[in-house]
Amino acid sequence: MQGMTGLLVYIKKEVPMDAFTFYNPTKIVFGKDCVNQLGQELARYGQTVLLTYGGGSIKKNGIYEAVMAQLKAAGKTVVELSGIMSNPRMEKVQEGADLCRKHKVDFVLAVGGGSVIDCSKFIAGVAKTAPDYDWWEHMFMKRENVTDALPIGVVLTMSATGSEMNNRGVVTNWEFQKKMGGFGDALFPQFSFLDPTYTYTMPQEQLVNGICDMLSHLMEQYFSLPETNNLSDALIEAAFKNIMENANIAVKNPTDYEARSNLMWGATIALNGIMGLGKKQDWMAHQIEHSLSAFHDIAHGAGLAIVHPMLLRYIYKNHVARFVRFATHVWGLQRSDYESDEALALAGIETLRAYFKSLGAPTTLTEVGIPAEDLPAIAEKSNRYPTSYTNFTTEDILNIYKSAL
Ligand code: NZQ
Ligand code: ZN
Q: Transmembrane ranges (predicted)?
C-alpha cells in the first residue's frame, strides 16, 4: 500500500452540515401478509397493469400466486414481463416500455429485488417518451431528472438495494460496457409492500450480497464530509450495528422473522434518503463496483464486498479521525490496543473486510474470476467525479482494483 495514496488530493474537513430538501412520497406497507392489502391499494390506479418480475423465483415460492390473486380481486387487466435479469440491461427496459405503449399500460407493478424494481422504474419513465427518444443518452449519460413516468408499485422479495423507497435505478448498456445510475422525481414507487417472510427463500449468496450492499450504502454516506458531530453519522452507526446483528442471525436461521424484519427495513432506510441528509455522500465505491459488473456481470453486493474495504484502505490516511470513529463506534475497537490512531483506523477497515469474509462474501477479484489484465480497461470505464474526500484519477481506481486481486 505504501505510496499508493500519494495521488490523492487532500480536502479540507471543516465544512458545515449541508443544506437540504428532503422529499420521499413512497408509502410503505410492512409486515407478514401485508400483500393481502395490495388489491385495495391498486384500486386507486388505472385498469391495465404491467406485472414485472425476474427469472422465476416468485413462481417457486408462492409470491406470484399471492400477487395475481390481488390483481384479480382488484379486477385488473394484467400484462406480464418476466425474465428481468440481475444487473438489468437496457434492452429489457426497451422491451417493457414497448409493452406499455402497445397495451396502453396504466401502472407498473414490480415484484422482485433491486434489478426488477430498477428496470421497472425506467420502463415506466421510457414509456412516457417518444419511441425514437434516445433515453439512454438523456436519462443515464446526461443523468437528466426523469419528471414523467407511469406510476409504479413494488412487492419486495429481497433486502438489499433500497430501490423500493428511492427515486433511482441502475441499468447496464452491455454494448458500451457501462453500468449507469439514473434518477427522477417521477421514479419514486407510489407504494412498496414489504413482507419479511417473502425474503425467506433468498439464496444464501443473495442474502450475503444484500447485507454487503446495505452496509456499503451506509458507508458511502458516512465516509464523506462533514465529519463534525451530526445526527446522520449517529443514525448510520446505529443502523450499521443493527444490520450486522440481524445479519448474523439470518445467515444461520433464514426464517427468523425478527431478523428478516430488521434487515428488510434496514435495507430500505439505508438508502431512502434519510441517512445521509446534511452529508455530501461520495458514492465512489459504487462507481468502482459498477464498472466491474459492466465488464463481468458480477453481483453488485459481491463486487462491493471486494472493492469497498480496499477503497477505504486507499484513502484512510487522509481522514484518520473519521476512521478512528468507525473503528471505535462501529467495531468497538479500543485505542489502547493500538500504537497509533492510524493503526486503529486501519484495524477498523481490516475488521470490516474480515466481517464480509466471515459472511461468505468474496473479498478478492480473483474469487469472482476477474483477471489482472482486464483491470486497466475496467478502471478507464469507471465513472468518477469530484467527491468530498478525494478526486479519483484512473490511476487511483486501477490501484484500488489491483489491491483487491
Ligand atoms: O430473478 P429471480 O428469479 O427473481 O431471482 C433473484 C435474482 O436471481 C433472486 N431473488 C430475489 N428475491 C428472491 C430471490 N430468490 C429467491 N427468493 C427470493 N425471495 O435474487 C437474485 C438477485 O436479485 P437482484 O434483484 O438482482 O438483486 P438486488 O436486489 O441486489 O439488486 C441488484 C441491482 O440493484 C442495483 C444494482 O446495481 C443491481 O443492478 N442497485 C440499485 C440501487 C437503487 N435503485 O437504489 C442502489 C444499489 O446500490 C444498486 O446499485
Ligand atoms: Zn448498492
A: none
Ligand 1 atom, smallest distance to 116 CA: 25
Measure 102 CA to ligand 2 centroid, in angstroms. Answer: 33
Helices 284-296, 394-403: axis angle to 10 degrees equals 70
User: Taking residues 20-28, what's their average pLDDT?
Assistant: 97
Rounded CA separation 365/292 (Å): 9
Counting from 1 in the atom list of ligand 1, the atom nearest the Cα of 210 is 30
Write down the CATH number for the domain with range 27-198.
3.40.50.1970
Alpha carbons 262 and 260: distance in angstroms, whole number: 6
For the stretch 48-65, pLDDT in tens is: 999 999 999 999 999 999
Q: What is the number of residues in the chain?
A: 405
* Domain 203-404: assigned CATH number: 1.20.1090.10
Query: Ligand 1, closest atom to CA 206?
Result: 20
ipTM above 0.90, yes or no: yes
Name all residues whose Cβ lies below 6 A of ligand 1: 54-58, 61, 86-87, 112-116, 118, 157-158, 160-163, 166, 168-170, 198-199, 201-203, 206, 209-210, 213, 271, 286, 300-301
Per residue in 132-152, pLDDT (tens digit) is 999 999 999 999 999 999 999
* Cα of 254 from ligand 1 centre, angstroms: 17
Residues 33, 4: contact at Cβ < 8 Å? no
Q: pLDDT digit string (tens) for 309-368?
A: 999 999 999 999 999 999 999 999 999 999 999 999 999 999 999 999 999 999 999 999
pLDDT value of residue 233: 97
C-alpha cell at 321: 479521525
Rounded mean pLDDT of the chain?
96
Domain ranges within the chain, ordered by starting residue? 27-198, 203-404
User: Which residue minimizes the CA distance to atom 49 of ligand 1?
Assistant: 161
